Amino acid sequence: MIITIDGPAAAGKGTISAYLSNKYRLAYFDTGMVYRAVGLQMVLTATDLQNTTAAFKIAKELTFPQMMELSLHPDFRSDIGGSAASVVSAYPEVRAALLDMQKNFALNPVFADGKPAKGVVYDGRDTGTVICPNADLKLFITASTEVRAKRRYKEFLQKGLITTYQKVLADMIERDKRDSNRANAPLKPADDAVVIDTSDLDIAAVLAYITPLVEAKL
């Protein structure tokens, strides 16, 4: 069972992916982690994010342990890590270096402890269009920019990260523009994806809508 969940930042992909992974005992692959790892490594080493050669080198040499170590950094999930990931993910060389790892996971999915799983939930931006175009179920989760910015701002405050709503909103607008207009794998729903706008829905309502879709595929 392969489920892909794509969409812009703070639309609810992570919460939905984690729920489905736990409920149906499927592995969970947050594909954004690989790009956050590359982007954050560039930030931490004061490397220009526009340096495509350096970005490719970091992506090519990235290992799973390195990615997990970087994920512990406070900026990994901050707007700094998110913005850096959005920049480097637009580089074809970086995407090519990381694509095989993401695709191959569906062939032999495993849980975090290394035990084999019977399927995987992919959380990303092009998992239904590029990584697993033959997925059993494709979802595209979205919401208005303002709603998503408020959600992300609240998350940052809860984590003790210092920022402002205006900055989060500006960064999100820029990130959406960059992700949607990139030449390689732009952010968009797959032709056969189920599109869900969560702007006016709580998580319970979203899951109540999605669960029957998953059950129908099992």
Question: What class do helices, strands and sheet pairing give?
Answer: alpha/beta
Provide the low-confidence segments as ranges: none
CATH level 1 name: Alpha Beta
- CATH fold annotation: Rossmann fold
As a whole number of angstroms, the C-alpha radius of gyration is: 17 Å
CATH superfamily: P-loop containing nucleotide triphosphate hydrolases
Strand content: 5-15%
What is the general shape? globular
* Biggest sheet character: 5 strands, parallel
Percent helix, as a range, is 40-55%
Number of domains: 1
- Number of E strands: 5
Total helix count? 10
Overall pLDDT level = 92
- Named at the architecture level, the CATH assignment is 3-Layer(aba) Sandwich
Q: Gap between N and C termini, in Å?
A: 7 Å
Strand order of the largest sheet: 2-3-1-4-5
Question: What is the H/E order?
Answer: EHEHHHHHEHEHHEH
Characterize the structure shown:
The chain has a single domain (2-210), classed as P-loop containing nucleotide triphosphate hydrolases (Rossmann fold, 3-Layer(aba) Sandwich). It has helices at residues 13-24, 32-44, 52-61, 64-70, 79-88, 92-105, 127-131, 145-158, 165-181, 203-217, and strands spanning 2-6, 27-30, 120-124, 137-142, 194-197. It is built from 10 helices and 5 strands. With 218 residues, it is α/β, with parallel strands linked by helices. The longest helix is centred in the C-terminal third of the chain and has 17 residues, at 165-181. The chain has a 5-stranded parallel sheet with strand order 2-3-1-4-5. The protein is globular and about 50 Å long. Helix 1 (13-24) crosses helix 10 (203-217) and helix 2 crosses helix 4. 54% of the residues lie in helices and 11% in strands.
